[in-house]
Structures are given as structure tokens and as C-alpha cells.
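User: Show me a protein chain along with its predicted structure.
Assistant: Here is one chain, sequence first, then C-alpha cells.
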Amino acid sequence: MSKLRVLLVTEDDPLYVIRFFEAFFEQYPRDEFEIVGITVARAFHEPLWKTMRRMWRFYGPIDFLRLCARFTIVKLCRRSIESLAIQRGVQLMPTASVNDPSYIERVKALAPDVIVSVAAPEIFRAEILNAARLRCVNIHSGRLPKYRGMMPNFWQMLHGESHAVVTVHEMVPKLDAGAVLGTLEFEIRQRDNLDRVITKTKHTRAALMIDVLRQLANGSLKPRPLDMTQAGYFKFPTAADVKTFRRRGHRLL
């Protein structure tokens, strides 16, 4: 049986998303999967100064400075998703947009069976969704369809959920609306730390993605359609949301 050809699409996040790739690159079965390329886009698909302003408003001055210190350290150590990929001989596929026609043509030339989105900062349009032989899949750190949108771990903690639910789902033109392919649960403490929850779920969900890809390769996958009558949607948290989060006893860092 030929190997499953996988193209990865993600964002440049050396603090959290990189945890997924540290685990995934170590654990994926090389005799079953071939990673044909990886695209690493800018975080939030916006200029750095906008991301910095967004983080300042979210974390506040003290946690923002702590986060900047972490970011500086990993940059000085030259630790990044791209460097992990290069170490393992994975081809880099840079692009300004996954929906750019020239990028889509390059993807088609790679002939991926599956395109895997891991925190990709763009909505995939029909052309890129159709570029994979089997399907495009996304991994989302929230229960679907209730926690569609941004920062699902934050919203699950804010709403007092007992567990964060990680969901692998099929990608369709509507955001976070495709059939569920696999889930796992991660316990949220009564007074918890968003940094801990994000870090742990990013790391543990690599095994979930590998399991889903194996099922996809051997034809045993059983997608579960979403009941969109139960759908919610969440944007990036406001300062007021963060205050409520902290009043619940949770911390950001």
C-alpha cells in the first residue's frame, strides 16, 4: 500500500502551535505517511505590529512582557516550526495566501492525499479544499459546533466547561462546519491556567491527528455530521472577557 501523502498548513507560532509539531514529527509513522510539504503563514495572517497590539490588549502589560520574554528566548534559540521541518527534510511551501492560484497549482503538483490545517490563519476556499485527493482536515481546540471560531480553549474555560474538547473535522467552505472525524477530551481544573491548557492540548492532539489520518488511509473513518442548530461562534476575546475569565479564578500565564 502506498504512503498517505500529507501537506501541512499552519501559522508561525514558536510558543504554542510548535508543540503540536514537536510531537507530530516525532510520532507520525514514516512507513505509512509521507509529509510532502509544509506551509507556515504569519500568525493571524496580519502584520507583526497588529499581532503585538492584539496580544497587549488580551494579556495586559505584565503578562504581555512575560510573553515577549518567552518569544525572544525561542527566537534567539532559532526554534521554529520551519526549523523543525527543515531538520526532518520536509519541503517548505511559502505563500502569501493559501487561496492564491499559483500556490494552488504548486499544491496540485505535489498531489497530496490530505491537506492538514493546524491553526492555519485563513479560511480555505473551494479551490484549495479541492486540491487534496481525499479531503482537507482541520484540528480545532474546541467542541464543535458549540465552540466554533477563535480561542476555543479560552471560551471553554470562561464558560466553566469541565473539559476542553479537541476536534479533528473535515474542512468545508463554511468555517468549522465540517463533519467530525475524531475527538479527545482534556480536563480543565476549577482554577486553571490558559497557558497550561493550550500547551498540553497542542501536544496531545498530535496523536489524535495521527489516528485520524491512519483511519483515513485505511478507509475505516466514520465522519459524524455536525448539528448546526447547536452552533455557536466566538471572536477574539475582549478586555471585558479577560476580566470575567480572571474573576473565575483562571490565569492567562
